[in-house]
């Protein structure tokens, strides 16, 4: 497959600015794969990156960095040592590549790499510490790619990165989910995928809590047994009532709303587990005495990890994940500023906003 010397990409500008310009097409090393990006999507982390609040040191100079960590495409070229993929393969990527030498990476915890940000030691996160997928071409380490089943289109493929976060959240439990009661706070993409994954893992019942009726309706169609608008219902009481008064075995907090942590703790049964999946925009004040007195475990996850995207690809390939309702908007890469505005303002009930990068 031939490719041009330059490509179109979206560059991070001053705080709040992102715009397209020409970049050299990346050169790849022996262990890398050049991906011709077909589709990319926006998420809350991209909003923080655009605002530069994501970077503790202010971030890279304007016009030099390409964000984007959720994307899928076609293999355009492979490095000299790569035999896992061939030119023309359809692939989805995962953002994190750990150093693969620290204790955390060696046991699969590469999203918690102890050498985070240290490129000399091999760590990289696409669209966060190295150039990402808001571009026609991206250089990926071979270990961050997953071949797509023929039945999975590029829209669905991009969402599998998010589904990987959900799978990773369930990984933290260390036990079977079958037969467990699960409550999910926050009907965004992660929460809505959480409903589906919980059902596929055999959870019963599955409750979804949020504040937007349109998204809650999608959750109901995706299999939630109990759907609660927390502005109209006492969600803690409702979840306890649905679980015989005990509370849910597992609660996934996916909203990132500070008050939701306290709700999560109080709707969890004694000895149950809360998994914090959402990112919080401010410090959280919560009743940790309730957790201590009731033996409630608190786990956290950061993105995908431990091979979770590969498992999400497998589920999707078997027709067990349905993502069509999550994709609400498409924009060409050149209109990325409008795409961001649509996502942030939730224009026309925006959930997943896609960039049609090429092809």
Write a concise synopsis of the structure shown:
By secondary structure, the protein is of the alpha/beta class. The protein is 26% helix and 25% strand. Helix 3 packs across helix 4 (189-200) and helix 3 (154-171) crosses helix 9 (308-317).
Topology (elements, then pairings):
Layout: E1 6-12, E2 18-24, E3 32-41, H1 44-51, E4 71-78, E5 90-93, E6 96-97, H2 103-106, E7 124-125, E8 137-141, E9 145-147, H3 154-171, E10 182-185, H4 189-200, E11 206-210, H5 213-221, E12 226-229, H6 235-242, E13 248-253, H7 258-266, E14 268-276, H8 288-293, E15 297-300, H9 308-317, E16 327-332, H10 336-345, E17 352-356
Parallel strand pairs: 10-11, 10-13, 11-12, 13-14, 14-15, 16-17
Antiparallel strand pairs: 1-2, 3-4, 3-8, 3-17, 4-5, 5-9, 6-7
Domain Enoyl reductase (ER): 16-355
Pfam families: ADH_N, ADH_zinc_N
Cofactor: Zn(2+)
Q: What report would you give on this structure?
A:
- Keywords: Metal-binding, Oxidoreductase, Zinc.
- InterPro entries: ADH-like_C (IPR013149), ADH-like_N (IPR013154), ADH_Zn_CS (IPR002328), ER (IPR020843), GroES-like_sf (IPR011032), NAD(P)-bd_dom_sf (IPR036291), Zn_alcohol_dh (IPR050129).
- This is Zinc-binding dehydrogenase.
- Its cofactor is Zn(2+).
- Belongs to the zinc-containing alcohol dehydrogenase family.
- With 359 residues, the protein is of the alpha/beta class.
- The protein folds into two domains: 6-163 and 305-356, Alpha-Beta Complex (Quinone Oxidoreductase, Chain A, domain 1), CATH 3.90.180; 173-300, Rossmann fold, CATH 3.40.50.720.
- Helices cover 26% and strands 25% of the residues.
- It contains ten helices and 17 strands.
- It has helices at residues 44-51, 103-106, 154-171, 189-200, 213-221, 235-242, 258-266, 288-293, 308-317, 336-345, and strands at residues 6-12, 18-24, 32-41, 71-78, 90-93, 96-97, 124-125, 137-141, 145-147, 182-185, 206-210, 226-229, 248-253, 268-276, 297-300, 327-332, 352-356.
- Strands 3, 4, 5, 8, 9, 16 and 17 form a seven-stranded mixed β-sheet that branches. A six-stranded parallel β-sheet has the order 12-11-10-13-14-15, sandwiched between helices.
- Helix 7 links the parallel strand 13 (248-253) and strand 14 (268-276).
- Helix 3 (154-171) packs across helix 4 and helix 3 crosses helix 9.
- The radius of gyration is 20 Å and the shape is globular.
- The model has no long low-confidence stretch (mean pLDDT 95).
